[in-house]
Design a protein that fits this description.
By secondary structure, the protein is mainly β. A 6-stranded antiparallel beta barrel has the order 1-2-3-7-6-5. About 15% of the residues have low confidence.
Length: about 300
């Protein structure tokens, strides 16, 4: 969990485009080896194509963190748009254990990015729908405009928040609007409890080491590289091997055994969020299936 960034100079990183070459026509009947090679090549091309669809479109930059323009599976184009980030990125400061921010007025602004990271627009919130650092680390803002308005003006569609639990081994992308950078890795596993200073998070996603996220990536959507849907929100890394301290989370299993994984990043699952939204993107903690912490 990174403290809010103040005065840090952004580094612009340009990613090279990957071109898939088509295979030459096969003149003779394929052998078993040829069929296996063709199948593998086709599968790899399909996976690469799916991964290539994950870009910076829909990512937003906050003053101190990253975030994303999101919709729930049941959201309509005419609904007020939502932005997802971390609870510890709230402009009011990090909520304490047990504290929940609910329907608080906000005029916070977000920089909407194009697929290549270009600045398209400044979006503005009307309120913090929900914010907490208990069990999870999430903030959800409601904007003063609709999805359809954003798409018609800027050509950007929201990312969909998946309503299913992420799966171990899934290829994922951590998309940082603050740094305009995409980290690629996989879901290594899940931490039963992740303890960091005074906060405890439940059932956290643990990355493989390739996602070496840094300050400013907090709040980035964690996107399933195949479906393109958001499965978690990036929130912390064990920086220097300390045990359960700020910026050095530790894992605690069901038996109370503590494990420290220096350099490994974590995210908070988001599959439980859609159950808390009714028609019209109306947030309601009393809805059946909504298990987010209450005030």
């Amino acid at each position: 969990m990174k403290k809010p960034l103040i005065g840090m100079l952004a580094t612009l990183l340009v990613a090279g485009a990957t071109t898939l070459a088509g295979a030459s026509p096969v003149q003779a009947a394929p052998t078993a080896t040829t069929r296996a090679t063709t199948q593998t090549t086709t599968q790899a091309a399909t996976e690469a194509t799916a991964q290539a669809t994950v870009n910076l479109a829909g990512a937003v930059a906050l003053s101190n963190c990253s975030g994303s323009l999101v919709r729930m599976p049941g959201s309509a184009a005419s609904d007020p748009a939502l932005v997802l980030s971390n609870g510890h990125c709230l402009e009011s400061g990090m909520p304490g254990p047990g504290q929940v921010v609910l329907n608080q007025p906000s005029s916070r602004t977000f920089t909407l990015l194009s697929a290549t990271g270009g600045r398209l627009a400044t979006l503005r919130a009307t309120k913090v729908v929900y914010g907490a650092m208990t069990d999870t680390d999430v903030s959800i803002y409601q904007l003063n405009t609709s999805y359809s308005s954003i798409q018609s003006r800027y050509g950007i569609a929201p990312l969909t928040v998946a309503a299913t639990h992420p799966v171990q081994g899934t290829s994922i992308r951590v998309v940082s609007g603050y740094w305009k950078k995409i980290y690629s890795c996989s879901v290594d596993g899940f931490a039963y409890r992740l303890k960091e200073a005074d906060w405890t998070f439940k059932d956290s996603v643990r990355y493989t080491s390739a996602c070496d996220v840094i300050g400013g990536t907090s709040g980035s959507p964690v996107v399933d590289a195949s479906s393109g849907q958001v499965v978690a929100v990036n929130n912390t890394t064990n920086e220097n091997g300390e045990r359960c301290t700020l910026d050095n989370p530790c894992e605690v299993d069901q038996s109370g055994v503590v494990t420290v994984r220096q350099g490994i990043g974590y995210a908070q699952e988001t599959y439980g969020i859609p159950a808390c939204f009714a028609a019209g993107n109306r947030f309601d903690l009393t809805l059946p299936g909504c298990v987010l912490p209450r005030p």
